[in-house]
Amino acid sequence: MTDTLTITRPDDWHLHLRDGKVLTDIVPHTARRFARAIVMPNLKPPVVTVDQAVAYRERILAAVPKDCSFEPLMTLYLTERTSAGDIRQASASGVVQAVKYYPAGATTNSDAGVTDLTRVYPVLEVMAEENLPLLVHGEVVDPQVDVFDREAVFIERVLLPLLQQIPGLRIVFEHITTAEAVTLVRDTPRRLGATITPQHLLMNRNALFKGGISPHHYCLPVLKRESHRKALVEAATSGDPRFFLGTDSAPHARSAKENGCGCAGMYSAHAAIELYAQVFEQAGALDRLEAFASFHGPDFYGLARNSDSITLQRSSWTVPEKLRFGDGELVPLAAGETLTWKLKS
Ligand code: DOR
Ligand code: ZN
After folding, report:
1. pLDDT (tens digit, 9 = 90+) per residue, 277-318?
2. 219 in ligand 1 pocket by Cβ < 6 Å?
3. CB 195 within 8 A of CB 246
4. Mean pLDDT of the chain
């Protein structure tokens, strides 16, 4: 049995860091594990210009501990007012790596998102020209569609037409949760990437109701049934370069989660690579963790792989029940549970 695992330092290709004084509470968790992270733009107000992305990046960097080197990779929030000029400026900036598409109303701070993707096809054509990837929150918001089917219906209604209409656009299907998404990624001849979160690899939808309703297991896309979880584990551990690590770590104060209308989002940055290691070990695929966590993402984005490494040790530790989050507190994923892999600092 392996007791230490040294891998090339990983990157997180989907991360929420929020803004303001909570940055100093949460950025260190990611910066101690990952070299880079794709930072989501769904702030209030959203990050829609390069200038906003540059300023946000500076605020994140100010929260990185002195002994870490961490590079935030910035994204712009796609709206129906995003222009070709915004895209060209983003592409030339060297700071913005991608553009995020939220269907309006699909999730946290998505109100400024896009109501009908075909309206922004001209802007997506420019992104294809500039080789700037589109990061997709893949769920329809049609109230007639069952919440658990939103991703599968999105594939049919939005993603397949998009793939056909703008063949040159590079797309990352973010936080995939279904066997249908895995099949789509595998069957698409050109490069469509997909990120997979630790929670969707570790849990199925029973976790939402175990012992009573559990707001800390609510995120979007929502957890799915066991057959989908198995398909995701199979994809992540398969060695297929189109699947890569993206935590979707999304902190919300305890008061916003334990609430009559609890927010969507799970916080995993405090133990992200450790949680993935657990999944890969359970699947008998620890030897494939490094490619999923450290190679497939930079290869997709056309960036260099990291040159340093991290070491995980087999050593039991208990995840804290709560973490500091500005003036409030945060309940992390796996709070109070024992994990088997520990980051060697
Ligand atoms: O659960 C989620 N939380 N899903 C998202 O798409 C957004 C995120 C957030 O920002 O809290
Ligand atoms: Zn997200």
Report:
1. 999 999 999 999 999 999 999 999 999 999 999 999 999 999
2. yes
3. yes
4. 97
Residue 53 CA to ligand 1 centre (angstroms): 19
pLDDT at 167 over 90: yes
pTM of this structure: 0.98
Q: Which residues surround ligand 2, an ion (CB under 5 A)?
A: 248
Q: Which ligand is nearest to the CA of 109?
A: 1
Q: Which atom of ligand 1 is nearest to the CA of 106?
A: 6
**What is the CATH code for 8-306?**
3.20.20.140
- Residue ranges covered by each domain of the chain: 8-306
Is the pLDDT score of 189 beyond 90?
A: no
CA distance 203 to 216: 12
110 in contact with ligand 1, CB cutoff 6 A: no
pLDDT at 129 over 90: yes
> What residues are annotated to the active site?
248
Strand ranges (DSSP E) for 47-203?
Answer: 71-77, 96-101, 134-136, 171-173, 192-196
